[in-house]
Amino acid sequence: MLEFAVLGLLHETPMHGYELRKRLQEIRAFSCGTIYPTLRRMRRAGLIEEEPDEQGAQQWSRRARRVYRLTGAGRDRFVELVEDCGPRACQDETFDVRLAFFARTPAPVRMRILENRRRRLEQRREGQRAILARADEQCDRYTAQLHRLGLDHSELEVRWLDELIAHERAAQQADSK
Amino acid sequence: MLEFAVLGLLHETPMHGYELRKRLQEIRAFSCGTIYPTLRRMRRAGLIEEEPDEQGAQQWSRRARRVYRLTGAGRDRFVELVEDCGPRACQDETFDVRLAFFARTPAPVRMRILENRRRRLEQRREGQRAILARADEQCDRYTAQLHRLGLDHSELEVRWLDELIAHERAAQQADSK
DNA sequence: GTGCCGATATATCGGGGCGATATAATCCGA
DNA sequence: TCGGATTATATCGCCCCGATATATCGGCAC
Predict the structure, then answer these.
(1) A90 with A158: CB under 8 angstroms?
(2) Which of A79, A97, A174, B68 is the most exposed place for a label (fewest CB within 10 A)?
């Protein structure tokens, strides 16, 4: 999913590794031990190209920086990934990155991702309710409290999703008129 | 931290890999691609020993199972780890495993872990508040909502921690009388 | 002026953990 | 009696993290 995030950021404008890292941290705190290898992998896969910093000819070329830009294949790959609304798109680790690029995701895909996410969370919530019901008898206080926290987290996110979905539906209806 | 969880479970009673897996899933969903290699590593490190299932001589020895039990070194290691209340003990990935064995954690260590966890969460919360303040102007709706969800999660957990800490303090005072 | 700190910038390494998959044996119901 | 679920162990490639190494530059203090 780091690949998706890089694709999305470079889709806006080319930039070098360090700037990429800073922008990525607004989305999720990827470590640099992840970013640079991924950048290389993507370069080898032909999704991005790199070139020495052109405007670095000016006084502030601190060090040899490389500017990364999307290739045509990279652009295609982003479009392909942004339209995926399968099970992967609503996993915990993926969902937040997907949401960060929702503005460039087609509305029907947005809707399906939100609904799939909701379904998944609902299942988890039911599982946690079942566990909690048993936990109050079987487990020690701490474990029971831990389960309660998990359930509260799930319920919070379901409510949050419902708000988003409602807003999304309203926007769809406004569009279709 | 899987190591810690395994140590904690085997501290109660010896058991074989599959039972270990089931018990672990009540704590956190470790994958089997993690568990068996860890078990081997721990065996090589002398923390656990394995032997063919003794009572498997009965009719239901489905397959060659190995029963794992703690060695003396393993017992020592658990005691050592259970008393750690440094920064590692209050990280996201670690904290829930630590809490699962709180009943066998000394009360002063419990208290420090809870307080360190609270401090860490408070910092995150402040960071998220700052981001959210900027996000409402700069980001699109979706990103801003994502940040709000993150903040809500943090605030939920801080409140939850405060409850636990208050309960812990009350228990301590009751003990010291 | 110089000497150090912090930010900029790129890169590697070891290791933990995940998900998929392989492989078997045994149990149970159709 | 056949097949699917459960019990049971193991391996593979991959993603990602955190620590660490290595430079360069700007700016501040002394």
Answers:
(1) no
(2) A174
Residue type, B155: E
User: Is the pLDDT reported for residue B58 higher than 50?
Assistant: no
Closest nucleotide over all strands to A21 (CA to C1'): C9
- In this predicted model, what pLDDT tens digit does every residue of A38-68 receive, in sequence order? 999 999 889 999 877 655 443 344 456 788 9
**B52: Cα separation from own chain's centroid:** 29
Question: What DSSP character marks residue B69?
Answer: E
Contact of A115 with A165, CB cutoff 8 Å:
yes
Which pLDDT value is given to residue B56? 43
Measured from Cα to the C1' atom, the residue closest to C24 is: B63
Q: For all residues of chain A together, what is the average pLDDT? A: 88
Give the pLDDT mean for A162-166: 97
* Predicted local distance difference test score (pLDDT) of residue B55: 53
Please, are residues B85 and B93 in contact by the beta-carbon 8 Å criterion?
no
The span from the CA of B119 to the CA of B129, in Å, is 15
For the domain covering B2-82, report its CATH number. 1.10.10.10
Q: Which residue has the tokens 């996201």?
A: B92
CATH class of the domain whose range is A2-56+67-82: mainly alpha
Total-model pTM: 0.89
> CA torsion sign, B143 to B145 to B149 to B150?
positive
Q: Taking CB atoms and an 8 Å limit, are B99 and A142 in contact across chains?
A: yes
> Do the Cβ atoms of A149 and B143 come within 8 Å?
no
Q: What gap in Å lies between CA A155 and CA A110, rounded to an integer?
A: 21
All structural domains of chain A with their residue ranges: 2-56+67-82, 105-176
Q: Do B103 and A142 touch (CB under 8 A)?
A: yes
Q: Is the CB of B60 under 7 A from strand C?
A: yes
How confident is the model at residue A63, as a pLDDT?
55
Give how far the C-alpha of residue B21 lies from the chain's centroid of Cα atoms, to the nearest Å.
Answer: 15
Q: Who contacts B84 (Cβ-Cβ below 8 Å, separation ≥6)?
A: B109
Q: Which of residues 41-60 of A touch B (CB under 8 A)?
A: none
